Amino acid sequence: MRNVRLLKLLTLLPLLLVLGLPGVFAKSADPDADLVVRDLAPVARQQHLDRTIANFLSQHHYRRSKLDDSLSSQVLSNYLDDLDFSRSYFLAGDLARFEQYRHTLDDALRRGDLQPAYDIFNTYLRRLAERTQRIQTLLQQEVRFDRDESLEVDRKDAPWARNTAELDEIWRKRLKHEMLTLMLSGKDQADARELLGKRYDNRLRQALQSTSDDVFQLYMNAVARAFDPHTAYFSPRHTENFNIQMRLSLQGIGAVLRMEEEQVTVVELVAGGPADLSQKIRAGDRIIAVAQGEDGEWVDVVGWRLDDVVERIRGPRGTVVRLKVVPGQIGAAAAEQTVRLVRDTIQLEKQAARSEIRTLPGPDGDGRELRIGIITVPTFYSDFEAARSGVADYRSTTRDVRRLLKELRDEIDGLVLDLRDNGGGSLQEAVDLTGLFISGGPVVQVRNAGGRIEIEEDGDSGRVYAGPLAVLVNHASASASEIFAGAIQDYGRGLVIGDATFGKGTVQTLVDLNRFTRTREPQGQLKLTFAKFYRISGGSTQHRGVQPDIHVPSSVLDSDEVGESAQRNALPWDEIAAVRYRGDPQLAALLPKLRQRHQARTKNDSDYQDFLEDLEFTRRQRDKTTLSLLESQRRAERAYLESWRRERENRYRVAQGLPPLKPGDPIPEGEDSAVPDTTLEESARIIADLIVLSGPGEKRRLVVGG
Question: What is the DSSP string of 586-651?
Fold first, then answer.
């Protein structure tokens, strides 16, 4: 169980986990350049390692999946998606030929036969070269931006093109969209053509640099993800990159990245990192260009290999990197933004829990004021190295929250613990933090692949805080956050408010593959799912997450888009026997009245209704999958979005007595913005309701000790 406690629980296909496709690029802009497509082939050591990985997964993965036709089909689907997710390169005839592998890859894995994987990849390379030659031809043709036509940007379920002519039409519209996007960002048509020509030229060159090891990495990840989305293979090269990330010693921007449809996409921000602290980058944003220093030349990175982009972003501490980012929450038509970041190592102090107090009028209008404490916990952290070294005052989530609670002593009537966007961390910290709010007892169950169940308990019978409590969560609250929120909910110790959580209830460990081979040459590692978490009430946190007692939205994203349920082949929800624990039924009895008060208040609250309308507007923009290719319409849409953002900011600035923004003024982001945190404010009001309903005039205070 010790190794479980040291795991970083949230593993959303982290940095460099997915190789990132070598790219899609056209014939070189130099007509005399000879860019030759050479077939790649497996080597003997890969064939042996292929068998080792496949056998190990089938025997030791939590799912215990057999190497059979069903798994073979899943591997093929994963592999084709990785190579051509947008269905823009392969032809229907290629897919018909690949069907011969649909139910035979399992047999090939047992034999160590990698030829099917290399056959598919080599076909992909040839289609890349053919397609990018056509792209360069299309880029030379006249483009009409006054024609009323549109582009379907979501092609993941589109039919495969039957012939080159159909693919040409798909790419004609795609290139027109890309050119129009660049023009809307300030480039003229000639510059846009030149940039796209270089972009696709570079993609081809990168694709042709692919090695046999690259293909093996890509295919083995397709095999691993057929077991579950958090199982993965790391080549020796990528093992070190993963270890850097897990130590949080990466000197970069502090973001988890992956390749999606040829663009580097932000999956998660590391709490306390430069990207997180800038408040200008969010999960789902796409990085399209990178520049070094204050005035370095911009390098377009669309279609680059993921590890090559990371190398440009990573750099010495204290140096500047500039990124061109396309916001993900606004949709495919969003305008690019420039973000300046100073590289730094992740500082534990910047991850630390922090507190504030908000004063609210009593909800029953009796004239008294209620003081609500807010403690924000960005991650479940612990300075393990300092603890092992015997440092008495080492930092951890539980230690910091305990200190904050004691500082709030006699100052608050209720507490909101904000776990939004908290992706997890140390399991032991989740258990220990729960112990600050309960009088001892079980916190979470861990079941391994063999069915053995271990119970993690809080052994301290004291509580540091015994008053009204709410835990605020959203779709990005995962792993350790879900363990804590689930335990608080099961004990009836506090309300869970917000959105359904992520639903990541699995546990991973790293396996050194050299332990199972006879060679001294590095073989890489497997990240293996070997256990699941279960609440003390018996239900898993996997897939479904923790459902809030009172739903208060905080994001335009839905759980079926960003949560575990959105992951292909995720382990299902299930349940085991509950353990014995003593819950408090009082909160459950008050829930109907609390929900009624919340609904009545927000229904008549113009600010809250404006907040819901803002979320819905943003959701509609993001969900658009069809884009107009009419320049006048796109410019009007871009101007409308800018006007909406400015009007929203000014609405709140005027309400707060601030001067409104003038046309042309930059629209502030993050803490500089006047837009309030409506979700947090309503959570504080719900706690105020709980204080009133818990008893007339009752003021619960902090309990010292524990």
Answer: HHHHHHHHHHHHHHHHHHT-HHHHHHHHHHHHHHHHHH--EEE--HHHHHHHHHHHHHHHHHHHHH
Residues 6 or more apart in contact with residue 694 via CB below 8 angstroms? 468, 586, 590, 700
Q: Among residues 28, 477, 479, 481, which one is catalytic?
A: 479
Q: How many domains does the chain have?
A: 3
Asked whether residue 506 is assigned to any structural domain, the reply reads yes
Range of the domain at 302: 250-342
Q: Report residue 696 as tokens.
A: 């007339």
499 among known catalytic residues: no
Query: Rounded to an integer, what distance in angstroms lies between the CA atom of residue 512 and that of residue 51?
Result: 15
Report the pLDDT value the prediction gives residue 558, as an integer from 0 to 100: 60
Which ranges of the chain have pLDDT less than 50?
1-33, 244-250, 697-706
**Does residue 325 contact residue 336 with C-beta atoms inside 8 Å?**
yes
- Out of 298, 318, 342, pick the residue that ends a domain: 342
Per annotation, catalytic residue among 421, 490, 499, 549: 490
The CA–CA distances, whole Å, from 91 to 158, 162, 270, 556, 576 equal 12, 6, 40, 35, 47
By the 8 A CB rule, do 488 and 469 touch?
Answer: yes
Same domain assignment for residues 452 and 547: yes
Residue type for 394, please? Y
Task: Find out whether 297 and 334 touch, Cβ atoms under 8 Å.
Answer: no
Regarding whether 283 and 142 lie in a shared domain, the answer is no
Task: For the full predicted model, state whether its pTM sits above 0.70.
Answer: yes
Are 60 and 145 in the same domain? yes
pLDDT for the residue 307: 79
Domain co-membership, 317 together with 356: no
Position 26 scores a pLDDT of 33
Maximum Cα interatomic distance, the chain, rounded to a whole number of Å: 86
Residue 504 among the catalytic residues = yes
Q: How far apart are CA 125 and CA 528, in angstroms?
A: 30
> Encoding tokens for residue 58?
């089938």
Residue 36: its pLDDT value, please? 82
Question: For position 272, what pLDDT does the model report?
Answer: 76
> Are 159 and 135 part of one and the same domain?
yes
The torsion of the CA quartet 461, 466, 468, 472, rounded to 10 degrees, works out to -50
Per-residue model confidence (pLDDT) at position 102: 98
In this structure, is residue 613 part of a structural domain?
no
Chain CA centroid to CA 70, Å: 28
> Which residue among 313, 342, 371 closes a domain?
342
Is the same domain home to 68 and 116? yes
* pLDDT score recorded for residue 21: 33
Query: Is 191 annotated in the active site?
Result: no
**What is the token pair recorded at 81?**
């998606």
Same structural domain for residues 501 and 572?
yes
Rounded distance, CA 489 to CA 658, Å? 40
Flag whether 239 is in a domain: no
